[in-house]
Amino acid sequence: MRGLRTSRALHGSGALLLAAVWITFCYSHLLAWQHSGLYSYLLFAGSESLVAMLFLLRDRPAAVSDAPLDWLLALAGTATPMLFTPVGNGVLPGGAVLIAAGVLLQIGGLLSLNRSFGLVAARRTVKTGGLYRVVRHPLYASYLLMYLGYVLVNTSLANLLLVLLGVALLMARVVREERFLARDLHYLDYMNRVKYRLIPLLF
Question: In what helix (H) or strand (E) does residue 63 lie, and over which residues does it extend?
Fold first, then answer.
């Protein structure tokens, strides 16, 4: 019972924090789109908005981690890309293709999940269909593509450091989440069947 109250309190605080960061993020990217006409800004903003919305509308899990570190990693990992800044120049403008590919991969992952979505490690029905037959974390794989595409289109030291931070947080989340989920025999069996976390044949 105490763990449930703790997770609800953390959920409420996290929702308020994400809402504040999200508003600023969307405003800056809408202005960048109006100024440049580049639809990659709208794609990236739409992707992050979808994550924030699903965080609020997700199904209630059977069990959720109440470890403060898991919540810190989840909130920091979700907020970090919302701190990316549109700078209007980049080393490879074609990086917008990676953003679009990442958004498509994200949509495919979300369709596979339905509403079984969460930011923090939680025990839900194990999803094994769709993209989850290829890697265990297709949504996180989509974030890697979008992060790389964004920094190629909007190259700055600040964005590069944020991307590196975002990737580090994402990797830590994968490890922590799987440690929690592996307590479920169904997920343990899934891990044995699908060998790769993010990138087929590599990781």
Answer: strand 63-64
Dihedral sign (CA 186, 70, 15, 144): negative
Give φ, ψ of 155 to 5 degrees.
-85, 120
- Report the C-alpha gap between 146 and 170 in whole angstroms: 13
Residues composing the chain: 203
Confidence of residue 7 (pLDDT cuts 50, 70, 90): low
Q: List the domain boundaries for the chain.
A: 2-193
CATH number of 2-193: 1.20.120.1630
Segment 138-163 mean pLDDT: 96
Rounded to a whole number, what is the largest CA-CA distance in the chain?
52
DSSP string, 137-165: -HHHHHHHHHHHHHHHHS--HHHHHHHHH
User: For residue 136, how far is the Cα from the chain centroid?
Assistant: 14
Task: Tell me the residue type at 168.
Answer: A
